[in-house]
Design brief:
Strand order of the largest sheet: 3-2-1-4-8
Number of domains: 2
Largest sheet: 5 strands, mixed
Strand content: 15-25%
Number of strands: 13
CATH superfamily of the largest domain: ATPase, nucleotide binding domain
Radius of gyration: 20 Å
Structural class: alpha/beta
Bound molecules: zinc ion
Distance between the termini: 23 Å
CATH class of the largest domain: Alpha Beta
Oligomer: single chain
Number of helices: 9
Helix content: 25-40%
């Protein structure tokens, strides 16, 4: 009989679950609020209910599920399956996700970080399916990354490899929440672009459609850029340049063949990809920079469901 798995994508607002077969077909889905601001217990209940719901929709019991893969915001230990006070899940503290879910559901559970599961999903069924050396970068509130090297997901000794949002792009830069200074995500995340736009408008008072400073988000900058607003276009050029600088470091370290970008800012298309690609060509390592492809991801929200299920299919981080 065909084996079935459930992939789970835990976010700060919602938890999504998907029933996935070994070929990577998404057979059923569920999405519900995670309610992490209410309590840890409530949000764990929402995760369990979502998992049960996808099995029910298929008319099967959890006994027929061969494994559950969970993608969770970090920091976490994928070897033990423990999450440590994720910023977006304020009531969580330290949560032994693997143990709790296995006790509750009696199904083997694997846990990995949200950026890693997206990378695995895109490499399995999306943008990276042709390549063995693949970097996937998520441009959201912060910047996350996952890398496949020689066909294997890179974890590092305790599961924190490819924290690309926290590589230094300016050693004299501002302090980051991680303790380092001038981290990439302070310059090139969606939040960072919105913040820098607000600061420059207040300081330089440029001619721009963006006048309501308090209302500025990466989306309003995008909308202004689409209408040809020169200042908004400049903000995208600048953000793409910063991101390109960070990616050059990552590419020089990992020698990946492809970089796929996902998350809010990646949806801005050429506005972000053009300055990123140009910066890589200007600054990358000879023999590499001309060959590395920088493209958008293909699977959207499904990447995390497929990737977390794929990690469960492969038996987790120990394989
Ligand atoms: Zn940092």
């Amino acid at each position: 009989m065909e084996k079935l798995f459930i992939g789970v994508d835990i976010g700060g607002t919602n938890v999504a679950s998907g029933l996935v077969d070994e070929e990577g077909n998404l057979l059923q889905r569920d999405k519900r609020p995670i309610l992490a601001d209410v309590s840890q217990k409530t949000s764990l209940r929402q995760i369990v209910d979502g998992i049960r719901a996808v099995a029910e929709k298929e008319g099967i019991s959890l006994k027929e599920i061969d494994g559950i893969g969970i993608g969770s915001p970090g920091p976490l230990d994928p070897f033990q399956g423990v999450a440590f006070s994720p910023v977006n899940l304020p009531t969580w503290g330290t949560v032994p996700l693997k143990r709790i879910m296995e006790e509750e559901l009696s199904v083997p559970v694997t846990v990995d970080n949200d950026a890693n599961v997206v990378a695995v999903g895109e490499r399995w069924k999306g943008a990276g399916r042709e390549v063995d050396d693949f970097l996937c970068v998520t441009l959201g509130t912060g910047i996350g990354g996952g890398a496949i090297c020689g066909g294997r997901l890179l974890h590092g000794f305790n599961g924190n490899a490819v924290e690309i949002g926290h590589i230094t792009v300016d050693f004299n830069g501002p302090r980051c929440g991680c303790g380092n200074y001038g981290c990439l995500e302070l310059y090139a995340s969606a939040n960072a672009m919105a913040r820098r736009t607000r600061q420059r408008i207040e300081r330089e008072k440029p001619e721009s459609l963006l006048t309501e400073v308090e209302q500025i988000t990466s989306r309003t900058v995008f909308e202004a850029a689409q209408r040809g607003d020169k200042f908004a276009l400049e903000m995208f050029q600048e953000t793409g340049f910063f991101l390109g600088v960070g990616l050059v470091t990552a590419i020089n370290l990992l020698n990946v063949e492809m970089v796929a970008l996902t998350g809010g800012l990646a949806n801005a298309g050429d506005l972000i990809f053009e300055p990123v690609r140009r910066t890589i060509l200007e600054r990358g390592f000879p023999g590499v920079k001309e060959k590395v492809r920088v493209i958008p991801t293909e699977l959207g929200e499904d990447a995390a469901l497929l990737g977390s299920a794929k990690i469960a299919i492969d038996g987790g981080v120990f394989i």
